[in-house]
Amino acid sequence: MTSGPALAALLLTASLALPGAGAGELEVYQGPEQPLLASLPDTSGRERSLGDYQGQVLLVNFWASWCGPCIGEIPSLRTLRERLDDEPFEVLAINVEENPFKVQKFTDLVSMPFPILLDRDRALFEAWGARVLPTSYLLDAAGNVRYRAQGPLDWSSEDIVDKVRSLLPDDDGP
């Protein structure tokens, strides 16, 4: 039986061979208006919704711990979050259909300094029209989906950081 790092490497290699698992691209969103995130529990059981982040730019990232490309983009998500630490910006990492205990164990091992929400039955993943993992949506401060990425991205690239910054609200408000 394969164990530990060897199994992780095998899973990563296998997931990269799957259709739709290659490098993604941040595309202007042209789909239907997304449903609101009515309420999902975080890893501590606290219910969260998009309304909790009103006035912030949000990166909604659907992921799973078994998904090699999802794991591969976590460091760049972390870097993006750190670069925009003083800005009205948040990453919401929505785990798709995994046991809460398993998600907690995984996030204890991997630094994910942003809210982890649990989509236990894939309902939100499907309602938003996502088909592959990872899939991410970038929302402006008014809650409108502006961009979508299907597949992993380097979220710390200058081009993406510039796109996120362009969505930040002006400081000249009332």
Query: Helix tally?
Result: 5
Helix content: 25-40%
Biggest β-sheet: strands ordered side by side in the sheet:
1-8-7-4-5-6
Q: Give the number of DSSP strands.
A: 8
CATH secondary-structure class? Alpha Beta
Task: Sum up the structure in keywords.
six-stranded mixed β-sheet; disordered N terminus; 8 strands; alpha/beta; globular; 174 residues; Glutaredoxin; two-stranded antiparallel sheet
Provide structural commentary.
With 174 residues, the protein is an alpha/beta fold. It has helices at residues 4-16, 68-83, 100-109, 123-127, 158-167; strands spanning 26-28, 40-41, 47-48, 57-63, 89-96, 116-119, 135-139, 145-150. The longest helix has 16 residues, at 68-83.
Record the SSE blueprint.
Layout: H1 4-16, E1 26-28, E2 40-41, E3 47-48, E4 57-63, H2 68-83, E5 89-96, H3 100-109, E6 116-119, H4 123-127, E7 135-139, E8 145-150, H5 158-167
Parallel strand pairs: 4-5, 5-6
Antiparallel strand pairs: 1-8, 2-3, 4-7, 7-8
TL;DR?
This protein is of the alpha/beta class and 174 residues long. The chain has a single domain (42-167), classed as Glutaredoxin (3-Layer(aba) Sandwich). The protein contains five helices and eight strands.
